[in-house]
Amino acid sequence: MSEKLAILWPEIILFLGTCVVMILGLSPRIEARKACAAVAAIAIVLAGIVGSLAPSGGSALLPELMNYSKGLIAIIGLLLLLLATGTVDRAEERAIAAGQRTFDPLRATRGEFYAFFLFSLTGLMLCASADDLIWLFLALELTSLPTYVMVAISTRGTRSQEAGVKYFFLGALGAAIFLYGFALLYGGTGTTNLTEMHAYFAANGLNPIATAGLVISIVGIGFKIAAVPMHFYTADVYQGAAASVSAFLAFVPKTAGFLAILAIVAAPGWAYGTSGESLPPELRVTLWVIAALTMTVGNTLALMQTSIKRILAYSSIAHTGYMLVGVIAGPGDGSFTQNGVAAVLFYLLTYGVLNLGAFAIVACLEHDRGDTTEPDEADHIDDLKGLCRTKPVMGWVIVISSLGLLGLPPLLGFFGKVPLFTSGIAAGEIALVLVLAINSAIAAFYYLRLVNAALLSDPDPKGETLRETPLPLRRVAAVVATGGVIVLTIAAGGLMTAAEQAGTYAPMTHDEAERYLEAAGRASQAAELPEAP
Amino acid sequence: MIIGSIAIIALAALLAPWLHRWLGWRAGYVLALAPAAGFVYYARELMGVAEGRALVSTLEWLPELGVSLGFRVDGLSMLFCLLITGIGTFVLMYATPYMKDYALRGRFFSYLLGFMGSMLGLVVADNVILLFIFWELTSITSYLLIGFDHDRLAARKAALQALLTTGLGGLALLAGLILLATAAGTYEISRMGPISGDHPLYVGALVCILAGCFTKSAQFPFHYWLPNAMEAPSPVSAFLHSSTMVKAGVFLLAKLNPIMGETALWDTLLVGFGGFTMLFAAYLATRKTELKPVLAYSTVSSLGIITMLIGVGGTYGTLAAMGYLFAHALFKAALFLIAGIVVHATHEKNTEKLGGLARAMPFTALAAVVAGLSLAGAPPMLGFVGKELLLKAGLGSANAIPAIAIASVTGVAAALTVMAAFVVVWKPFFGRKPEHAGHAHDDAANNDDASNDHGHHGHGDHAPHEAPFTMWIGPITLGVLTILGALLPVYFVDAVVKSAAHDVLHNAAAIEPVARTVYEGTSLAAFDMLYISTPLLISLGALAVGLVLYVLRKPYRATTELLAPIDRVGPLRMYHWALDGVVALAKRQTRFLQNGSLPIYLRFVVTAMLVLVGVALLRTGGLGTLRNDLDDLGIVEGILVLMMIAAAYATTRQRSRLATIAILGIVGYAVALIFVLFGAPDVSMTQFAVETLTVVLFVLVVYHLPRFALFSNRATRLMDALIASVAGLAVGALVLASSAETSIAPISWYFNEHAYPAEGDPAGRHYAYGRNLVNVILVDFRSMDTLGEITVLGIAAIGVFTLLRLRPDREPFAEPTGAATFGADEPDHKRASQGEGERPHREGSA
Amino acid sequence: MHTLLAIAAGVMFASGLYMMFRRSFVKLIIGLVLIGHAANIVIFTSGGLVRGAPALIPAGEARLPDDPAFTDPLPPALILTAIVISFAIISYTIVLVRRAYQAIGTDDLDQMRSTDK
Fold this sequence. Notes:
The complex is a heterotrimer of chains A (about 525), B (about 850) and C (about 120). By secondary structure, chain A is an all-alpha fold. Chain A is built from 21 helices and three strands. In chain A, about 70% of the residues are buried. Chain B has a two-stranded antiparallel sheet with strand order 1-2. In chain B, α4 packs antiparallel against α10, α14 packs antiparallel against α17 and α16 packs antiparallel against α18.
């Protein structure tokens, strides 16, 4: 148990941070309230450091996954935090500063917002260390529940509450579905521990119950990653919530979902069956269909949109599809070009950074509507027109982010996509890689519209109300993300090595599995247990 | 140093805007030093490379991905390097006065130099991924350059079309290159050995790579973007779309020829597509009357020739390919630059309206004559030599394709090309100027297709005059080179062409003879050519026919007009159909799937789930046996379960909210009682408590809401009932199947063993010291989960509290009204019926 | 008994799903509750039904005796966790209904369409 505790220190740090933040948010002193974000940032940084340095643990099947994931989560989490400053209570604080009102702790939501932020990140880190179905379920729910609230409180208008409702219901449905899948997995294998489940599959193969459980679990977790058929909420929710919260949603639940799917899929494993070379066929077919549909649906639905957030929402669906190719491909022989798992982990990093830059644009540009109201986010493509000339920093942020998401070489996004291509081909999934390629081409349509608007179009004459956000940290986040894209392009080698190591897969052979099961006391014969009368 | 040559160009690209701000429009001359330096470097290294010592330069970048900055200049690459840097220098010098009046010229030079650097990188890259990176960079810079006049819709559309076509091809290329690398076992082209046609990945790689190369080099059916790319300013057309970028495709084909070229499939496809393109494009060239489109189509035709020649192969074929490639780059660039000068000076693009310019611009005319003769393939130009080699290769080819076919197709194409050459060169410079030409300026102003007189309004109705020195020096030099190259091949051509051909051949044994043959057999010295042979006859015949066609060009054009309807199903139309089709599909799909309605989403989700699971189970052969123990039933249990079922069904039929909630309570209590009966009292107590709380909470909150209304119609309800029933059936079946599964031993024996110590138990084992196993599991064995559970409960509580506090009716700040905020495309009808901005105020009740 | 409970689970699941498809917000919550119950029954049944005593180790002993038969303690533990969490979710949802009703003025989910395209 103590080794379990040793790997949980990052989560504990975040949790402590949560408590402090919540208390600070209630303080009548403005400095204390302002410190909320700082405390949250410190907590994230500490957790990241501790998490990367901690001894490896978590799942025995993907032993190096945990440290890499925690580091990744901390880095992107910090940037997301910078982006999320000033999301809630902005108008309120301005009124308080102007002396029009006094601070009312019952009305303030700032503390809770940052607290939920940290809670969600805690859940995400827990996902990374999960090696048991129940742990995984709790971690996934811990990741998602705070996001439901974050969406609902992200603006004062009705649209975010609406978004919150839809998100919540579909999320609850998704959770119910994958919980059911987990229950079936337990029923089919007699255990909730993923390593033991792997041993069971290696020794006895898949039975129908377990298969149903696997499929249902993956479909349910599909909600978190916005995969078909659970993707419907994405556009409405991303558009309804504030941009900084949408950026959060595009990364955090997605990472949680992928970590969970990797953990679950690792149980039957990519060395399944007599051929020992790929996933079990039923699982492979399911994932194949989901991946192909997700990519295509995401890209085609994005084509006609004029709201930037909706475009990014649909594109995030498409990126999920791309990553699922890596999940199907599996670790191959472990080298980076063949390792689909490593490709997914690396892509999460590249996607996280690029996506942040893209959403940062919407978070950093607003339409000024006078000082008493909350400013409106600039969400329409026309708001981007001529941005490279009027506000060059922001303009280039969106250009680089869009080109990166498009996968144009030599930006980071390209190097994220190539491992998906190569691992897919190495695993023999030529058809799926073709779908991936075609979808990348379709994606060019709408990403280039964004680039075109910012780079080549003339500024919209109706755009005088457009201005950059006065919140400096958001701009910092945007610039850092974009700078990161360029820096990481050059320095990607080290990260690729890290991802490759994180993607090492340690399956058991048939005999090893039998021995493991025996040692765990679960040989195929029934143990002594009261019989049903 | 290879990297240096690319780097200096990249640096120039970055500095271009500042240099322009600092030095004015003449900064272009300074920038031209960058490619000039590169040219000097490559020229110095030329002899070494020609003798077989390739230049190599490597830098590790991303070793995990197999991407290294590996550059290698062999003969083929050297040919291209010289072309890129040499022609590039002239183009930059030409562009400086040309772009004098553009406001954004700094950016233009930036893009142009960026393109140049990318193209240079492309031809020297040894690593497959690196090559692809540069490939895509050239596409993007080309897009920026074509769309440079971005105020014009035509330019933007052309740029997008070019980018989409070459970009799609590029993606296919990436897939193909990766397949190739997988088949060859390495990502370094120089280390790849020949791959046989039987290799499983061969065909896939071939198709993908050909798709990439054909889109880039505008081969049929992807040729439609190149003429539209003429929207770009003339320097761009001269550089990108005639001599460098479009040659990237044939470059790659040539480079991969030793690796992939062993099969008949390769030869057939290349000869087929190349030959057809050659003929078809030559024909299309003769139908146009404007300068740049004629040249554009003839470029496509020339690229077809080169493609075909690579397919034909053999010593003559390869030599012809490289020689013709070299020659074409020179004279086509010259012709485009000249076309630019003409349009710049006269503001008139239509050759029928031009005439007699030789008097006004003698140097340009001279250059035009020389380049035009080369295009027409007249002796003693290098173009002629290229055509001769081509015919010789075709006639002497040992391929299955009949030599006659190649020769005749080439002959026809040659004739058409001759006519095109006359159209471009004779009429504008030496023909009679038609009477209306004085209004050239007005006509130009009324045109809105390919027009480059943006900002040149100051020239008004001046008589055309000679262009500045820096503009015609390029065409003249290039033209002179085509003569000298033919007359004195040893000094100007052999080292380049010969070594390039050496690298393209995949039959190593033929290398030595080629080196010697260049001096002897092909007799590039023009006078030696004048012994009567079939190729010579064909060439002279083509010249004659082409001249006749030119003279009779008006009836010719009228005849070809009759064939115009075929355009309606041409590839360009396909492109537009594809584009519109994707857009329409997206529109319909969006409207169907994403209509914002939550229940519809739910239906989709559940249906999709059922389908997926059903399919997965069908593949495994179904669920297996289902457990049936209806005989084993206690009375109390049976009644409870029946109550459960009845109540569950009843909730769906109720109209009153309170009744529904109450019946829901019955379900919950029945479940709790079942738990008691089957030996789980802890759960039962929890269930009772929770159910009670839920009902109370429900009543408290829901009490004030109105009765259930029937919102949906009968059909929807039936469909929902159907989906729900199937889902319920699935769930029930799964439960029965899992109950039948008896081979799994539960894990609870572990908890049994470790809950409480007995005497005989070994010391050192950990015990929970509890007797209630369920509690022990929750609190000891699985305590982390319980901690998580409590945390979730806490979060939900905070969430509830937070939500309860946010009350919109006490909001002091004005709220944005519904539809205006998020720019919905259609007005929200239902919202409108409620009245915008009306917020139901329920201060006290809720 | 397994069969009857399986049928019960199926019916509850179907009813719950049907309620969730309806356009009324409140019905959706009721559906969620029903599905929650169904899930609990599923877990319980899958773990094996034993009409026996609860898993309490009698005083003076260190193990569950083999006779009379005892219920497997693990499924109840899982169900407990599930009940608590679903309670958390349901209560949150109920409050969400209230908020939504205050904001939109109706129970109809199809009225919540302002972010659609």
